């Protein structure tokens, strides 16, 4: 029972910090998300998505389908290369792509201060 | 101990495990029931997603589909894995941020419209039941082959188990049972693949075995030998396809967009605590899925090669026992056209249609078929579904492997069925009742209706399993085509196009849906005789037409949204909020 009031207090404090941080009209405080900032974050995200989707398209539709006959003239460890991309290679690249996205978008999130992991939330809460 | 007794024990143990988990994780609130309290860890969710996604079709059929179509089978491999890239990059994180319970929820809120919500519910219910019918058939096949019970009894047992953990545990129960089911399924898939790979190539890793030399002294690698053997028998080479490039392209794209738009997969990403967790768990899910999907093409090539080796030019009386076991349940048939008592396998259908067995046995003990023989030398009918299930027998593996494969097939079917049924029940209780028809009900009543809806959905699925519509295979094309032409574009536009409005989205969904449905119905049901590349629009088959439906959806949505009322500000604010991962909202200038 002793802990409860303490916890309540700290919650209230956090709440106050946040309230202090709320946008005074027109303020460009670091931790306040303005429309401009969201727009810049979104642009960075979309740019990353386009690059990764270009890779996604190239390995499956490019190597596995459109260029398959040409690539099949080459051999990789006993596979015809086009066939390998269609039945093995593209799947490995898909897995790698998602983890690359997780890592890179995480960096962008932190750069714009919109990350949702514990460190990010804590930093925002501790901001005076 | 007989194989059958062993199978009963293994299957019984796995069922007991699933029920145990269900009791341990009973749902207490609607949030538990719909999204497992949004407290599932990313790795756990990845595993559950993999089990949810890999259906009886993946487990039982995909190796067979690739074995009998070679390069053309790549559409399933790329389509059903590449969709996860779209999901992880374009949909899952933003839907998690939105943070509601169902896919129609997002569409209804984003397009500020009950009609949009109801259209989404209709698409969803149709997609899910199409799929469930296939799962229940899978349960029936496994039971009748391995446990030798009536298909009806098998379906009832399956229904009882799903009923127990889906109705009681909701999403929470399903999540943790799916984790167990994934482990059973993947172990059951990889084990025979390793043994078959060892047998054919001496390499224990199937993915590497696929490019190794065959252990028959010929010095040829697996795919080289397979190409040669098939060409000798009159088939096209295994590594070349017979589908046109545009068809391969469009079908792959439909399967990818369809995968990303399938509601039972999307809803799994509502169950993790945070946006970054949704991204990670899509990655984990694809790792777990890729494990099976990279093994499948290896297993397919080994099984096809071994099948031809064992069956072709073998006297029927000397054929291995599994040929007769599968013949007994009607998935293999032999028509001795040249009456020499020897099985000849070659390109072309042995006879028209599925085997119609007549009474009595032939002089060699084979089951007789009454079908009209086709004019070619092929005497063998083989259902592609047996390739995976028969692989332990083809490779002469011990009985416990067979028991494991039976348990794996059931795990695959039950996990997917449960996920689908939950999505149906939550969109009925949440979207149709709570949000549209009976907004006055409280949470306890909503949970009660969710359970009733789940129970009703299980019963309906059981009915479909016992009386399967004769066109399950054709209807699967529907599920992906519709998801690609309706739900995927609507969700994508809702996140990426801030100005997309209600009128545009609804008009887009309806036109994509109607176009795709009309094209498939015409070529699959109304006029199947005309279904060939000469009559298809741009040479695109009904399986791939969802791509055009998707493009029509986008085109109509953009055009209509230009000429109708603008999106309200509070909805634009919602889009802004969905786009950023952190919890704090966006400050808008006034």
Can you put this structure into words, describing what you see?
- The complex is a heterodimer of chains A (128) and B (590).
- With 128 residues, chain A is mostly helical.
- Chain A has one domain.
- Chain A has helices at 3-21, 35-66, 68-71, 81-111, 118-126, and strands at residues 75-76, 79-80.
- In chain A, helix 2 runs antiparallel to helix 4 (81-111).
- Chain A starts with a helix and ends with a helix.
- The relative contact order of chain A is 0.11.
- The model of chain B is unreliable at 584-590 (pLDDT under 50).
- The radius of gyration of chain B is 25 Å and the shape is globular.
- In chain B, the strands form three sheets. Chain B has a two-stranded antiparallel sheet with strand order 1-3. In chain B, strands 2-6 form a two-stranded antiparallel sheet.
- Chain B folds into two domains: 3-306 and 396-579, Sodium/glucose cotransporter (Up-down Bundle), CATH 1.20.1730.10; 332-382, no CATH class.
- In chain B, helix 1 runs parallel beside helix 17, helix 17 packs across helix 18 (443-466) and helix 19 runs antiparallel to helix 20 (502-526).
- Chain B is mainly alpha-helical and 590 residues long.
- At the A-B interface, helix 2, strand 2, helix 4 and helix 5 of A face helix 5, helix 10, helix 11 and helix 13 of B.
Instruction: Kindly identify the CATH topology of the largest domain in chain B.
Output: Sodium/glucose cotransporter
Low-confidence spans of chain A? 1-30
CATH architecture of the largest domain in chain B: Up-down Bundle
In sequence order, what are the helices and strands of chain B, one letter per element?
A: HHHHHHHHHHHHHEHEEEEEHHHHHHHH
- Mean pLDDT of chain B comes to 85
Mean pLDDT of chain A: 74
Structural class of chain B: mainly alpha
Strand coverage percent of chain A: under 5%
Name the helix and strand elements of chain A from N-terminus to C-terminus, one letter apiece: HHHEEHH
Total helix count of chain A?
5
Number of domains of chain B: 2
Total domain modules of chain A: 1
Strand order of the largest sheet of chain A: 1-2
Euclidean distance between termini CA atoms of chain B: 78 Å
Q: What's the CATH class label of the largest domain in chain B? A: Mainly Alpha
Estimated helix fraction of chain A? over 70%
Strand count, sense and barrel status of the largest sheet of chain A are:
2 strands, antiparallel
């Amino acid at each position: 029972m002793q802990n409860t009031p303490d916890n309540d207090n700290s919650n209230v404090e956090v709440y106050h910090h946040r309230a202090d941080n709320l946008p005074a009209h027109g303020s460009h405080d670091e931790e306040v998300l303005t429309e401009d900032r969201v727009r810049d974050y979104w642009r960075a995200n979309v740019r990353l998505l386009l690059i990764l989707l270009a890779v996604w398209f190239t390995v499956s539709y490019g190597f596995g389908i459109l260029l398959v006959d040409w690539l099949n003239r080459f051999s990789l460890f006993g596979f015809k290369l086009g066939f390998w991309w269609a039945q093995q290679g593209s799947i490995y690249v898909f897995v790698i792509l998602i983890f690359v996205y997780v890592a890179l978008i995480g960096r962008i999130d932190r750069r714009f201060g919109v990350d949702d992991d514990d460190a990010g939330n804590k930093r925002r809460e501790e901001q005076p | 101990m007989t194989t059958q007794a062993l199978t009963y024990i293994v299957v019984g143990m796995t069922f007991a495990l699933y029920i145990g988990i269900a009791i341990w994780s009973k749902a207490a609130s609607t949030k538990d029931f719909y999204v497992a309290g949004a407290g599932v860890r990313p790795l756990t969710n990845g595993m559950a997603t993999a089990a949810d996604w890999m259906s009886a079709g993946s487990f039982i059929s995909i190796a067979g589909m690739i074995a009998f179509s070679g390069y053309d089978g790549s559409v399933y491999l790329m389509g059903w894995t590449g969709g996860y890239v779209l999901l992880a990059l374009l949909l899952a994180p933003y839907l998690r941020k939105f943070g509601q319970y169902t896919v129609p929820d997002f569409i209804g809120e984003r397009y500020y419209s009950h009609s949009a919500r109801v259209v989404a519910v209709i698409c969803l219910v149709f997609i899910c039941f199409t799929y469930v019918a296939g799962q229940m058939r899978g349960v029936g096949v496994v039971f009748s082959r391995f446990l030798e019970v009536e298909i009806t009894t098998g379906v009832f047992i399956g229904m009882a188990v799903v009923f127990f953990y889906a109705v009681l545990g909701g999403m929470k129960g399903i999540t943790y049972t799916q984790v167990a089911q994934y482990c059973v399924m993947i172990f059951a898939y990889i084990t025979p693949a390793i043994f078959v790979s060892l047998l054919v190539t001496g390499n224990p890793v199937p993915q590497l075995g696929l490019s190794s030399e065959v252990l028959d002294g010929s010095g040829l690698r697996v795919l080289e030998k397979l190409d040669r053997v098939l060409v000798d028998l009159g088939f096209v080479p295994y590594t070349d396809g017979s589908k046109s490039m545009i068809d391969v392209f469009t079908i792959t794209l439909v399967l990818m967009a369809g995968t990303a738009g399938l509601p039972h997969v999307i809803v799994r990403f509502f169950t993790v605590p945070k946006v970054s967790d949704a991204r990670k768990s899509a990655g984990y899910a694809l790792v777990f899925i890729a494990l099976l999907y990279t093994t499948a093409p290896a297993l397919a090539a080994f099984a096809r090669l071994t099948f031809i080796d064992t069956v072709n030019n073998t006297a029927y009386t000397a054929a291995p026992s599994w040929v007769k076991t599968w013949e007994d349940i009607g998935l293999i048939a032999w028509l001795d056209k040249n009456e020499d008592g020897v099985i000849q396998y070659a390109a072309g259908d042995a006879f028209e249609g599925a085997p119609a067995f007549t009474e009595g046995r032939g002089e060699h003990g084979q089951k007789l078929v009454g079908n009209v023989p086709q004019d070619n030398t092929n005497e063998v009918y083989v259902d592609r579904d047996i390739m995976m299930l028969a692989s332990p027998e083809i490779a002469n593996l011990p009985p416990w492997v067979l028991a494991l494969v039976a348990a794996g097939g059931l795990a695959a079917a039950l996990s997917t069925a449960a996920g689908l049924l939950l999505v149906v029940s939550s969109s009925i209780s949440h979207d149709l009742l709570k949000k549209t028809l009976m907004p006055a009900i409280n949470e306890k009543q909503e949970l009660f209706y969710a359970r009733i809806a789940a129970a009703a959905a299980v019963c309906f699925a059981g009915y479909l399993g016992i009386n399967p519509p004769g066109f399950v295979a054709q209807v699967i094309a529907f599920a992906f085509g519709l998801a690609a032409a309706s739900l995927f574009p609507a969700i994508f536009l809702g996140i990426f196009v801030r100005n997309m409005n209600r009128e545009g989205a609804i008009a887009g969904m309806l036109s994509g849906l109607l176009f795709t449905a009309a094209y498939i119905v015409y070529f699959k049901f109304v006029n199947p005789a005309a279904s060939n590349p000469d009559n298809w629009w741009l040479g695109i088959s009904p399986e791939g037409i969802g791509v055009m439906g998707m493009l029509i959806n986008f085109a109509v949505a953009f055009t209509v949204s230009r000429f109708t009322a603008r999106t309200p500000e509070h909805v634009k604010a919602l889009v802004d909020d969905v786009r950023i991962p952190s919890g704090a909202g966006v400050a808008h200038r006034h």
